[in-house]
Each structure stands twice: as structure tokens, then as C-alpha cells.
Amino acid sequence: MNSRFTSNTTAKPLVIVIPLEVPEIQATVICSRRHDMQIRIRSGGHDYEGLSYVSEVPFVVIDLINLREVQVDVEKRSAWVQGGATAGELLYKISQKSKTLGFPAGICPTVGVSGLISGGGYGFLMRKYGLSADNILDAHIIDVNGRVLDRESMGEDLFWAIRGGGGASFGVIIAWKVKLVHVPSTVTIFRVSRTLEHNATKLIQKWQLVANKLDEDLNIRVILERVNTSTQTRKLTIKATFESLFLGGVDGLIPLMEEEFPELGLVREDCTEMSWIESVIYHGGFTSDFTSDQPLEVLLNRTHSGVLFFKAKSDYVRDPIPDIGLEGLWPMFYEDEAKSAVLIFTPYGGIMDEISESEIPFPHRAGNIYQIQHLVFWKEEGDKVEKRHINWIRKLYIYMEPFVSKSPRGAYVNYRDLDIGVNNNNGYTSYKKASIWGVKYFKNNFKRLAKVKTKVDPLNFFRSEQSIPSLSRFDNITIRHNTLPCEEGMQLLEFPDALHVII
């Protein structure tokens, strides 16, 4: 959770509903509509801009924390996971049933599955199997009328929309049926760091040329941050960390690296073999020691400790950033606000280049070399401190403009950034205005998302600063489907006595 949105001045919900059963969510949706109260849906609470638990107008939070059951079917290679589970809880339950089945979840185990899947879902398996949202077989959603719909009853348009289009725009997603994928009994990880004094810039250049062309079993991401050159001096430098997962043993990895990326100088001593689920623990930040014996139960932790404020942005790179571009970037990391700044380069290629831009709403596919996540962290409270750090990352974002995708400048909805545009807060936003941010996240798929939204939620009940807009007659976009009735036949329910409500 971003500490920027947990201060005493942050707007608080009028009601927090913590349902134990699905009918309680249905009642909450219907009652909230009756009383004209917005809903925020919290799965894991990881929305970068706090939209799963913060709003400027009177609102209700539905916290799905009690709905996190996972049922794994090894024979059918599938699992049902409730919307309140975290990625770590899902992967842990899979590992208890099989050592050679996994799921392409995100890197952070504490992220809620509903937010992860409904926005896309990056991870170390993406070059082999795609995003989390690419591996969904079915879903259960509560719509604006309080009905529980599965894939068949919701129809393929809505099922398409919730897999990468931001599920909270369309209803409350209470469960997902995920496709499990094969993982080998042994994988290999490495983490190799180089500073500017050890050719980091040249290594990044070579990485840009090969990372998206490597075997799909190999994923190498780059993490950039500033460090001291040594413990004895305050001189600063840039450290590039090459962090990898290889779906196989070290005997297969070393020859591959010697052929494709010899400049990194990887040796066997840099590598560690382990099970795939152990690599999830390592990459999830639960341990920095390859040899530490962390129990798998650490994946059941739902939160990271500590207070952390941050702001994030994202970009997509289609052509390698030249030396001059990288060298112009380094001085920005030496500024005071960049003390805890990080850039993460996530490689494309593999199956990501093969899936159509319109297969699901997530459109960032072939043509991208890698994706960038820009992050700046700070620990001090206060508006002035926050403003300085946010101004720094905005300046960085401006600097990066010549080197990233254009028309539109792409962005990833799960790294939500309200700087790129917001809806009106009066309940209606034109398609034209919403397109300012919408095409950055979804490109041409944004128009189809708006049509689906209009079909299933014509009065725009499920809305936020960056929710998909419902179209009006002023938007001049043809809708070929009849919209669902919003009030006709709807039965008003009161909150049941057993419902867990915090006021």
C-alpha cells in the first residue's frame, strides 16, 4: 500500500464492507446504487494511486480479504482463486499440489490477484507464457444489477474486457479460473551487478539488443539505481543489476549466455539452482540470500512491513536508447530526490510478440523491446517532501520522452499514473476526454472497452478517476448492442445482519 494515501488527511470511506459471502457483496452493490454512493473494490490494496481504497466523493470500500480460497485441479491444469487472494497465496497453494505447475503471476507476491489479472500481470514467466491475463479460463463477476455472472452468462465481450481492461470498471470480480502452466523441477537464477566504472552503460546497450531475442526460457530484467562507489567514500555511481530466471539448469544457461550475452561475464558461481516456487520467494524480495532457507509459508504474508511513499510511471521502448540518452540520464540519479529512485527494464520477446494487440485489452505486444517502470521512494511525511519527489519523477518522465513509444506514449495500467489524465468527478466523462489517458493504457482497444462498459454499466456506476467511461449520445460512437436494463426488475436488498460493516 502506498503510504501517500494513508495519512490523516486522506478521504475516508463512509463504510468499509468486509464480506464473508458473495450475497453480501451483491447487497452492497445494490444498496450503494440506491444511496448514490461510489464503490471502491480492494483486493490487495496495491493500486499505485490508491484508487482501490480512496475517493474524493462519498464512497464505500468492499474489502475482499476474507474471500481468498484457492482450489487447484492438477489433472485439468487449472485453479479457481477468489478475488481477495494474493498472488503469493495462489502460488503457494499451487506448489502444495504440484512442483511442476505454476502460474504467470506478478513478481510481488503481496499483490491481489484481481488487480493483477484485471490489469495484465507482468512476471518472470511472461516471455514463455504471457501475462496473467493471457492465462484466464473463466471468471465470476457481480454486475451493476447485483447478478453473479460467469463467462457464459456475461458473454465474451465482458470476459474480454476484464482480462487486462481494469476489472473495477465493470463490476466486482469475485473469482478467476486460471490456466496452470508447466515449470521445470529445476530453475536457475542469477543476479549480477555492474557499476558505471565496470561498463554498466555498455552492458545495458548490449542488453537492449539481445534481451527480447533470447530463448523464451530466459528472462533477464535490469534494475537501475544509484549507489556509493564504496563504503569508504561518498562518491556516487549508477548500478545496473541484471536479474534473471532461466527455466532449466545451470548447464543449459551458461552456454546460452556465452553465445548471446558474453559481455556480462556470467560464470557458474553467479548462478543458483532451485525449484520454481523458491525463485518466486527470492524475486519477491523475501530474501536477498540465494542460500537462505525461507519456508514457503512466507508467500502467505499479505503485507510488507514499513512505511513507504512512492510515485511511479511507465513507458515502452521500441528502439534501443542510445549511449547519449543513457549518459544524460545518469546525472538525474545524483540529485537529492533520487536517493531511492529505481528504473526497472522488463524485456519483451517470446510469446509476447506473438499475441495480438486485440486478443485482450492489454495492447503492448510486438514491436516493444522492453517496458520501463520508473519509481521514486521516500520515507519522510509532508507535502513539501512529496512535491519534491513527484516533481523529480515528472522531470525524469519528460527527459525520457524522445526515447520511448509515441502516438500514443504507452503506459501500463497496473503502474497507474494519474498524471496522464483523469475523468471528471461528476459521474460523466466524455469519451474524448477519457481517451487522453485511455489510449495510453489500451491503444485502439479503448474504444471497444467503452462500448462494453456502456453495454453492462450504462449509467457509469462503477467509476473512478481512471475508469472506462460509459458512452453517451454526444460521444458519436456507434453501439451495436442493446444496453442492459439498469432499474427494471431490480429488487432492493438491505444489508443483512451478518454482514461485516465498519463505519
Automatic annotation (TrEMBL):
Its cofactor is FAD. Its EC number is 1.3.3.8. Pfam families: BBE (PF08031), FAD_binding_4 (PF01565). Residues 9-183 form the FAD-binding PCMH-type domain. GO terms for molecular function: FAD binding; tetrahydroberberine oxidase activity. PROSITE patterns: FAD_PCMH, OX2_COVAL_FAD. Keywords: FAD, Flavoprotein, Glycoprotein, Oxidoreductase, Signal. Belongs to the oxygen-dependent FAD-linked oxidoreductase family. This is Putative tetrahydroberberine oxidase. It comes from Medicago truncatula (Barrel medic). The lineage of its organism: Eukaryota, Viridiplantae, Streptophyta, Embryophyta, Tracheophyta.
